[in-house]
Automatic annotation (TrEMBL):
It comes from the Eukaryota. One of its GO terms (biological process) is anther dehiscence. It holds the Pfam family Glyco_hydro_28. This is endo-polygalacturonase. It comes from Raphanus sativus.
Length: 433
């Protein structure tokens, strides 16, 4: 009997604690003035697990705590006109500091106007960044005064999944930037424009079902990340929009990009210094400048890229197909590269290695070069839009090594080959003279 009433006392006491705890909790959460967008689905679980007296029905007891922080609960209007940057920052602060599996939610059916914004970790337990609505970039230059090179940055967060739920759009509204680019208007000085979405220093990253369009400059830049999986991404911009690389990969290891469709004004995918183990599968590219490794070795830099495998791609009406480009004067290596199962439709330079790349007014003649080593082209078919289908313009001092063409058949052009020994396998056309 005594034991029983003891239990009852504990029971009541626990109940009391829980109520006051929740009350306290909601007070703390109201730090942003009644805009707390998170709903804790099971804040009682920990207490209950430590206490036998109260047991919840199993349906009330998920194995992990989880919550969603929606920008709409932090004052974001989503009317496409009001600047929602501050609301996003508040929501981010909340989502990033919440314990238990947390989702940052950008709701469907709305358009959120944003200035240059940084979503910075490390976070307690943020696992999902859901872009179900549209993120629309401010077109005012002054809205980028704190960071001229970036519009949206997600950085220093591990185990994050960025999901567009097939409806989500990141829209850079880049037109105003393109018009002012020196590549379009020669009278304008060459200045940088912001990258639409930068993913920086993220480990175990998933990006899926997302659309990105009309970036100010680069559309998605993946920098200093490890273990990245990009799937079902659609990236678009006009073919004449300057420097709008689709996916730019820098200093990133172990990345896979699959089932994606990129049509843009510059490289569909560009792979830069410090990238290793890059797997590209089932890619559609065009318009654009194709798939590029480089430019490497700019300003006499040392550059290393290795383990790139493009397996399954269709390139249509692009300026290049698969390209490796390095500047004179650089050093380092681009090695262990495989381009296979690729279809080219009316591509200007279907296969190209250019160790004399130059996109400036003038590049100095220099002997040093980034060594290109072990590049296999296998099962590549299609048509060339120019009379050079295959171009190996390699360095005299550092000739291209280990180049293999296997079952390559590109109609409409010849092969131009300098400082390279090509090994042909199966049927190859055109062949190096
Ligand atoms: C991320 O996931 C890995 C593997 O599941 C785990 O070991 C690690 O602790 C997680 N990191 C964070 C910050 O949660
Ligand atoms: C190789 O590149 C150099 C430098 O751009 C250029 O002058 C030369 O014409 C190129 N070779 C061929 C065969 O196109």
């Amino acid at each position: 009997m005594a034991r029983c009433s003891g239990s009852l006392a504990i029971f009541l006491c626990v109940l009391l604690m829980l109520t006051s705890c929740q009350a306290l909790g909601s007070n703390i959460d109201d730090g942003y003035g009644h805009e707390d967008g998170s709903f804790q689905s099971n804040s009682l679980i920990k207490l209950n697990n430590e206490d036998d007296v109260l047991t919840l029905k199993s349906s009330d007891r998920p194995t992990t705590e989880s919550s969603t922080v929606s920008v709409s609960n932090f004052g974001a209007k989503g009317d496409g006109k009001t600047d929602d940057t501050q609301a996003f920052k508040k929501a981010w602060k909340k989502a990033c500091s919440t314990n238990g599996v947390t989702t940052f939610l950008i709701p469907k059916g709305k358009t959120y106007l944003l200035k240059s914004t940084r979503f910075r970790g490390p976070c307690k337990s943020l696992r999902s960044f859901q872009i179900l609505g549209t993120l629309s970039a401010s077109t005012k230059r002054s809205d980028y005064s704190n960071d001229k090179n970036h519009w949206l940055i997600l950085e220093d967060i591990n185990n994050l999944s960025i999901d567009g739920g097939s409806a989500g759009i990141v829209d850079g509204n880049g037109k105003i930037w393109w018009q002012n680019s020196c590549k379009i208007d020669k009278s304008k000085p060459c200045t940088k424009a912001p990258t639409a979405l930068t993913l920086y220093n993220l480990e175990n990253l998933n990006v899926k079902n997302l659309r990105v369009r009309d970036a100010q400059q680069i559309q998605i830049s993946i920098e200093k990340c490890n273990n990245v999986n990009v799937k079902n991404v659609k990236i678009t911009a006009p073919g004449d929009s300057p420097n709008t690389d689709g996916i730019h990969i820098v200093a990133t290891k172990n990345i896979q990009i699959s089932n994606s469709d990129i049509g843009t004004g510059d490289d569909c995918i560009s792979i830069e210094d410090g990238s290793q183990n890059v797997q590209i599968k089932d890619l559609t590219c065009g318009p654009g400048h194709g798939i590029s490794i480089g430019s490497l070795g700019d300003d006499n830099a040392k550059a290393y890229v290795s383990g790139v495998n493009v397996d399954g791609a269709t390139l249509s009406e692009t300026d290049n197909g698969v390209r490796i480009k390095t500047y004179q004067g650089g050093s380092g290596t681009a090695k262990n590269i495989k381009f296979q199962n690729i279809r080219m439709e009316n591509v200007k330079n279907p296969i190209i290695i250019d160790q004399n790349y130059c996109d400036k007014d003038k590049c100095e003649q220099q002997e040093s070069a980034v060594q290109v080593n072990n590049v296999v082209y296998r099962n590549i078919k299609g048509t060339s839009a120019t009379d050079v289908a295959i171009m190996f313009n390699c360095s005299e001092k550092y000739p291209c090594q280990g180049i293999v063409l296997e079952n390559v058949n590109i109609k409409g052009g010849k092969a131009s080959c300098e400082n390279v020994n090509v090994k042909d396998k199966g049927s190859v056309s055109p062949k190096c003279p």
